[in-house]
Amino acid sequence: MKLFSEVVAPQHNVADDSGDAFIPVTRKKPKGKKPSRPIVGNFNASLTKLSAAKPVLHKSIFHVDNAAEGCLPSDIIDHLKSMEIPVISCFECKSWRKFGPEEMASKAFRLCVEKEVVKKILDKEIWPRGIIVRPWKFKSTDSKKATAGMEMLNTSKSCEELESPSGNNLCGTLCNSN
C-alpha cells in the first residue's frame, strides 16, 4: 500500500535554492473577467416584428419562518393573493431558527415570487406578527469540493483510504499507474 505523498512527491516536488521541496501550483482556468450578467430587453415590441419567444421571468426567493405548526403552503399563497401579490411557488422547508427546550416547533417555507414584488414581500405590515421573512441563502457547492481537495494534499492516508463524500476515490489513477 502506497501513501499519497509517495505517489505524488516524485512527480511534482521541486527544490528551490534553500533545498525545501514544494509543489508548483498551476491555474486551471485562465484569469480574466467574470462573465457579465445578460441584459433582458424591456422595450414594448408592438411597433416592431422582433419579439421574444416567451417572457423572461425574474424571480426572488425568500425564507418564511416561524409559522404555526398547522400552516400550509396554500395558506401563505392565499394570504399573499389577498394582498394582490402573485406567487410563483411555495413549499415547506427546514426552519433556520434554533429552538430551545421549552419553545414550540414551527414551520418554514421557501417562497418564490417575481422580482417586481420584492418591496411588497419585505414590507412588515403585510405579515402577521412574529412571522420572519428573509432572503433565501443558497449553499455553496465549491466549499465541499475545496475541503475534499485539501484533505487529499495534507494527508498521510493511503490512496485507498482517501474517499470523497460521494464515495469516489480522490486519488484517481495515480495509485493504479504504479
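That was protein one. Protein two is written in the same sequence-then-structure order:
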Amino acid sequence: MNTHKHFDKKDKNYRRWWNITDRFGFSMEFSYNSTSYHINLINFSDDEGEWGFSMAIRPIAFYFHVKVPRALCLKESRELCASVHGGGLWWSLWGSPWCDYPKPYGKWRDGNFNFVDFFLGKSTCTRTTLEERDVLIPMPEKSYKATVKMVEFKWTRPRWFAKMVTRADIKVPEGIPHEGKGTCAHNCGVDATYGMTTGKCHSIPKAVGILVGHCLSDRVKYGGWSDWEWRKPREKMTVNKSAAYGMKCVEDKKVGIINPNAETA
C-alpha cells in the first residue's frame, strides 16, 4: 500500500490518497474554503470503477472516494444528489452524472426549482446603446482602428428592483497581435485580439485603456514583449508537430492552414 497527501494553502484544501492495489484504494479531501451546498452519492462505471460520497455546507466540504473492481459497480454510472446554487434547488434521483440530453427519464428525477424566480418573477435583460464611436487603440508599434459601444445592461424582475450595469463593447477588425497560448497545435504562433466586452465601465477612454492593458498583459504572459514592431508574417508561424490526430503536421505557408500531407523537415 502506498499513500500520499497534498495541502493547498491557497485554496485551503487537504487531500490524501491510499492506494492498496491498482484496482482498490480510497481518497479523502477536506476543504474549509468551499462556496457550495450539496450532498452527493455517486458511482462511476465507465472506466475504472469508483464509488464516491461528498457533502458541503459553506465553507466546509468533505469528499470520500473508493476505487473498486469494475465488477462491484453498477452497469451504468449513477448519482443521488441535491444541491443549492443559482437561487434554486437542483436534484438527481439515481440519474446519470453526465450532461447527456435529452434525458431518458422525466424531469422529476433530474431537475431543479428556482425559488428566486418563483417569488420575484423571472429575470429579463435589455441592452441599450448609449454611445458609439470610432477610435484608435494606441499600441507600442502602431494604432489600431476600433469601434467602441457603451451599452447599458438592465436586469428586471416583476417583483423586485432593477439592476443596471454599463459596459463597453469593443470591436477591432484588424486584430491586435500577440503570441498564442501555445497549449495546443491550434493556438501556437501569432494570435490576435479582435474585440472584448469589459466589466463595469462608464467611459470610452477607460474602455480603450482596459483593452490596451489586456493586450499588453497577454504579450507579457505569452511572449513577444520585446518585439515592439510586431511584423511577424503569418507564414512564419510555427505549429506543434505532435499535434492532434497523432500525425506529423506542418503549416502550409501559402494559405496559413495545417496541411497533414506536407513534408516535414
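Residues 235-265 form one domain. Keep this in mind for the problem set.
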